[in-house]
Amino acid sequence: MQIIEKSKSLLQQPIKPRERYYQQLEQYLATDQIVVVQGQRRVGKSYVIMGYLQQLNLDSNQIFFLNKELDEENMIPDSTALIKLYEDYCKSYGIPKYLIIDEIQDIQGRESFIRARFVEKQSKIIISGSNSQFLSGELATYLTGRYLSFQVFPLSYEEYCLFTQQADSRTDFKTLLQSQTAYLRKRNLVYRGFFTTYFEMLLKTEEVIIIQ
Predict the structure, then answer these.
(1) How many angstroms separate the CA atoms of 92 and 76, rounded?
(2) Statement to judge: residues 130 and 178 lie in one domain
(3) Which of 14, 47, 120, 156 is most deeply buried (CB count within 10 A of its CB)?
(4) Could you give the C-alpha distances from 205 to 182, 183, 199, in angstroms and in order?
C-alpha cells in the first residue's frame, strides 16, 4: 500500500483554500452521489480535494486516497489491481469514510470498481480526471444517474488577489481595466493561471501562508 501512503503524505502540506469549491464538494457529497471533479491538468483539482480533506480533520486511516499520477511504476494499471489494493486497505484499516481516486482515467476497467463501491453505500466517493475521455464511453454509462460533477478552473482574479495578498483595486472602471490587465499579464506569463503552478512557485520562495 505504498502508493496510498505516498498519496496521503500530500495531505500534510500547506494548501491555500479555494472555498467556493469546498462548498460545492460539501453540497454534492451530502447527496450520497459520486462526486466527479473535472478540469484541465494543473488547474488544481488535486489541491481542491486535498484542501477539503484537510478541513475535515479526519483520521488519515478513514481516507482511501489514490493519486494515480504518483504511480510511477504503474502498479495499479487496472481494476484488478485496484480491487486488491482496496481490499488490503480495508483489512488493515476498515472501510474508509472517504474513497478518493485522483486522475482515475489512467486505470483500466475503473467503471466496475466505482459502481460497486457506490452500490455498497459505505464511503463518500470523489473521483477526478483531466482528459476529454474521462466521462465518455463506459464510465459515463456505468455512472449515469449516480454522479454529480463540477469543473475546477484556473485562478480567478479574486483568488489571485487573495493568494498574493494584494488589494482588489476595482474601485472604478479605469482601475478595473488596469488591475485586470496586470493580473492577466502575470497569469499568462508567470503563473499561467494554474493553481498548482502558483503553489509550487510559493514553495520555492518560502512564502506559503495558510489563509484561515
Answers:
(1) 19
(2) no
(3) 47
(4) 21, 20, 10
Say how many CA atoms lie within 13 Å of 110 toward its Cβ: 24
Specify whether 41 is located in the same domain as 25. Answer: yes
98-102 sheet: strands from edge to edge: 63-67, 98-102, 124-129, 34-38, 147-151
Please indicate, yes or no, whether residues 42 and 145 belong to a single structural domain of this protein.
Answer: yes
Domain that holds residue 164: 157-193
pLDDT at 134 over 80: no
Whole-angstrom Cα distance, residue 169 to residue 180? 9
Total domains in the chain come to 2
For the chain, what is the mean pLDDT?
Answer: 81
Q: Are residues 129 and 26 in the same domain?
A: yes
Asked if 180 and 110 sit in the same domain, the reply is: no
CA-CA distance, 39 to 44, in Å (whole number)? 8
Question: pLDDT for 170-185, tens place per residue?
Answer: 555 456 556 666 655 6
Give the residue carrying C-alpha cell 504518483. 70
